[in-house]
Amino acid sequence: MDYTDIISAANYLYSLGMLLEFASFLWLRRKFSIMKRPYRVPFKLSALVPMRLIPTGFLVVKMAILMTVVGILWYFLMRFCKSKEWLKQWRKCPVELHFNPAILTRVFLEKYGSYNLILAFNRED
Asked: PANTHER family recorded for this chain (predicted)?
């Protein structure tokens, strides 16, 4: 991990903190509007909400784009690893086993028997 990755992660966490800060600012302003404080923002709540929505929108869009890009990159990385057979648990597993519970149950019954199937579904981890 190089310096730019660390800075990117710190910015992402800072953005999450800013979202919490915006929410707490509006909540405290609504709940305790007459409380004495060292500095008062000279606007009513109706003006403060749009002021906070604009940066919140930018933060949410930035985080959504970041997560989408990371998800797409992760997908292609997993496909590459699967094609090189670096992920052994996915090497020879047919796709229909992942999505069809009936086929999965039949394969499990053929391999382990009905008693183990009942134990597997009744297990409380």
From this structure: CATIONIC AMINO ACID TRANSPORTER, POLYAMINE TRANSPORTER PUT1
- Per the structure, how many domains does the chain have? 2
Q: How far apart are CA 30 and CA 44, in angstroms?
A: 10
- How does residue 125 score in pLDDT terms, banded at 50, 70 and 90? very low
**How many Å apart are CA 15 and CA 55, to the nearest integer?**
10
The residue range of the domain holding 20 is 3-85
- 76/99 same-domain check: no
Cβ-based neighbour number of residue 12 at 10 Å: 15
Separation CA 50–CA 4 (nearest Å): 32
Q: Which of 122, 115, 13, 3 has the alpha carbon at shortest distance from 63?
A: 13
Q: In this predicted model, what pLDDT tens digit does every residue of 22-32 receive, in sequence order? A: 888 888 888 88
